[in-house]
Design a protein that fits this description.
Blueprint: H1 2-9, H2 15-57, E1 63-65, H3 67-87, H4 95-109, E2 118-120, H5 124-127, H6 136-149, E3 156-160, H7 167-180, E4 186-193, H8 198-208, H9 218-230, E5 236-243, H10 249-252, E6 261-267, H11 270-275, E7 280-283, H12 289-300, H13 311-323, H14 328-337, H15 343-356, E8 360-365, H16 368-371, H17 375-385, E9 390-392, H18 405-412, E10 414-421, H19 429-444, E11 448-454, H20 458-462, H21 466-479, H22 484-496, E12 502-504, H23 509-522
Parallel strand pairs: 3-6, 3-7, 4-5, 5-6, 8-9, 8-10, 10-11, 11-12
Antiparallel strand pairs: 1-2
Helix pairs in contact: 2-3, 2-4, 3-4, 8-9, 12-14, 13-15, 17-23, 18-19, 19-22
Length: 532
């Protein structure tokens, strides 16, 4: 209608000139809209980049970005693609589409400010309903777990630590956290324990999926679970708790090499994680001394700042907390049991704790091929004759290149470890793992450690010279020079040389052994254990 008026209002002009005027007017209007689209498009690109940089700068350990931010970024990418697609087409034919796009671009640019952009992520204590106290050691482990769960190269992750350290509590809290962060669509949980029962595990997984089986065979159930996981629109986390024996998750129906699923295993030692082929194994360590004391105070009611407690009670309480060896469950149980009790009961509890976990008075660590049938064998025989309950590996506990759980338990359950550092001690990965564990127990459990430098110089061990240097180089070639395991071995060898020990070079071995046993008799009261 508008253009018809122009035609009739200028009768003197030729038809061509009039058509050109109309075309130029239309082209001008379209060109103006197109330029405005370009301006808004460039604004959107700039806003998108600014928001993207802010997302990258966010510390995802403490802040969760609001969902609307990601929705806006997704909408921006779609709209920018629409603009690019339209600019390739004829402008004249797409004038109305340009006008619509201009409105969309203007509206989206107006929404690039977000309040809030992100919100603080609640603590683990929140996700565990108060069952976890936010200590540095637990926060560090949870950060490692979260990083591994977000790593595309890790499909099976292991968390290992001693019974009572709180592995189950931690992974359940992490399950709530990853759901809150929308990393996983669902978390499936099953307890495995000592003898894995595939049907029982399948039932627990099915309950988490609200699934009823229409097939009774294990294979049929496995196919049903597998199909359910593969069709979910976001990845699934499967937690297998307390794994003590190898089993195949695919027998249950859990895909092991799928981007639709991650598996988190809890176990009591790293070997069990290795058997489950975990790409990353994370250790849950005991609480530090101060963390243990803080937790003990929470449950026992005894605190340093509380003036109503006697100096003697505070000292006994600290000893009790220390004897709990950084085990959260034990700290909680003992703390609750001693609330408002007289000091006499505290002392009885302290005495019981000192001996309750020890099964062996002495643990002997040695290189079998060097001293089993000579020095160490004679030392073991003499200690037993003197009545000391002594553990000496008969050579059947270790298989492969990993120290056995039975041997680790024996170290933990001993009061004194005697380490016979002989020429080929460091050639054995088992011996080196024993050494690391012994020094860990010295720190955490206050066990006594006596090194014997048997026909070797402490400085050669400390600085990895001669046989010790050659053996460590061999380990580096097998496990890697930067391997965490190798680094622990080096640190342990250095540390053990700083302990007060005894050196044997020449002379009668039986005289040296007799002197050793006399020294053990001097500390007999410190290594007493209850009869078991």
């Amino acid at each position: 209608m508008h253009y018809a008026i122009i035609l009739y209002s200028i009768p003197t002009l030729g038809i061509r000139e009039t058509a050109r005027m109309v075309f130029d007017d239309v082209e001008g209007r379209i060109g103006k809209v197109f330029k405005e689209v370009e301006v808004e498009k460039n604004r959107l690109i700039s806003n998108r980049d600014c928001v993207g940089l802010k997302v990258e700068a966010n510390d995802d350990k403490i802040e969760k970005i609001s969902d609307v931010v990601f929705e806006w970024l997704k909408e921006a990418e779609i709209l920018l693609q629409e603009v690019d697609n339209l600019t390739l087409q004829d402008r004249m034919q797409q004038w109305n589409e340009f006008r619509k796009l201009l409105k969309k671009l203007t509206a989206l640019n107006a929404k690039c400010e977000f309040d809030p952009f992100s919100t603080p992520i609640p603590s683990l204590e929140h996700f565990s309903s108060g069952n976890i106290v936010c200590f540095e050691s637990r926060d560090k482990t949870s950060d490692q777990l979260l990083e591994a769960l977000q790593d595309d190269n890790c499909s099976i992750i292991g968390l290992y630590g001693r019974e009572g350290y709180g592995k189950t509590t931690l992974v359940k809290a992490m399950a709530e956290k990853v759901k809150y962060l929308k990393i996983f669509h669902k978390v499936l949980f099953a307890t495995v324990s000592q003898n894995p029962n595939i049907r029982t595990i399948q039932k627990e997984i099915a309950d988490s999926l609200d699934m009823k089986f229409d097939k009774n065979s294990e294979a049929g159930r496995a196919r049903r679970i597998f199909s359910a996981i593969e069709t979910m629109y976001r990845p699934v986390l499967v937690i297998f708790d307390d794994v003590q024996m190898k089993f195949d998750p695919e027998d249950v129906g859990i895909p092991c090499k799928s981007n639709r699923c991650k598996i988190l295993v809890t176990a009591r030692c790293q070997q069990d994680c290795d058997l489950m082929q975990c790409q990353k194994s994370i250790q849950l360590c005991p609480l530090s001394k101060e963390e243990a004391w803080t937790l003990f105070g929470k449950y026992s009611g005894v605190h340093d700042e509380e003036c109503s407690y006697s100096f003697e009670l505070l000292n006994v309480a600290r000893e009790v907390a220390l004897e709990c060896e950084g085990v959260p469950k034990l700290i909680k149980d003992v703390g609750i049991s001693l609330q408002n009790k007289p000091i006499e009961e505290w002392k009885v509890s302290l005495g019981n704790l000192k001996h309750s976990m020890a099964k062996w008075q002495i643990f002997l660590s040695f290189r079998g091929e060097d001293t089993r049938y000579s020095f160490t064998g004679s030392l073991y025989h003499t200690l037993c004759q003197e009545g000391f309950k002594t553990f000496m590996d008969d050579g059947g506990l270790n298989t492969g290149d990993q120290i056995s759980p039975s041997l680790l338990n024996a170290i933990e359950a001993s009061r004194l470890s005697i380490i016979v550092l002989s020429e080929n001690y460091a050639s054995s990965s088992w011996c080196l793992d024993e050494l690391v564990k012994i020094l860990e127990c010295m720190e955490v459990k206050k066990q006594l450690v006596w090194p014997i430098f048997y026909k070797v110089e402490p400085s050669d061990i400390r600085y990895l010279r001669k046989c010790y240097g050659k053996d460590m180089a061999q380990h580096e070639s097998i496990f890697g020079i930067d391997s965490e395991r190798v680094q622990k071995w080096k640190a342990a060898l250095f540390e053990v040389c700083n302990l007060s020990g005894k050196t044997y070079t020449t002379g009668y071995e039986y005289e040296f052994i007799q002197k050793m046993v006399e020294d053990v008799n001097q500390i007999k009261g410190c290594i007493q254990i209850q009869n078991i």
